[in-house]
């Protein structure tokens, strides 16, 4: 595992701490979870294709349900 150091402005750090406090977690955990979520999110082109297919075949899926 590697360590990453980032620089945040004072107001951004305050906002990070505020949000982390709401979830009762450490700010560094919130940052790590957010980065993990971003990195595991499906590619935008995949998401667009999936949305298109779901919309195009909505009636068929409704009938099969």
SSE layout and pairing:
Layout: H1 10-22, H2 27-40, H3 44-56, H4 58-64
N-to-C order of helices and strands? HHHH
Largest sheet: none
Secondary structure category: mainly alpha
Number of helices: 4
Give the tally of β-strands: 0
Domains counted in the coordinates: how many?
A: 1
Query: How much of the residues is beta strand, in percent?
Result: under 5%
Overall mean pLDDT stands at: 90
Radius of gyration: 19 Å
Walk me through what this model shows:
With 65 residues, the protein is an all-alpha fold. The chain has one domain (10-64). The protein has 4 helices and no strands. The chain has helices spanning 10-22, 27-40, 44-56, 58-64. The longest helix has 14 residues, at 27-40. The termini are far apart.
């Amino acid at each position: 595992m590697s360590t990453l150091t980032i620089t945040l402005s004072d107001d951004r750090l305050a906002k990070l701490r505020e949000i982390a406090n709401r979830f009762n977690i450490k700010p560094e955990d919130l940052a790590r979870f957010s980065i993990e979520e971003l990195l595991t999110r499906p590619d935008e082109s995949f998401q667009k294709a999936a949305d298109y297919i779901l919309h195009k075949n909505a009636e068929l899926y409704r009938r099969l349900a």
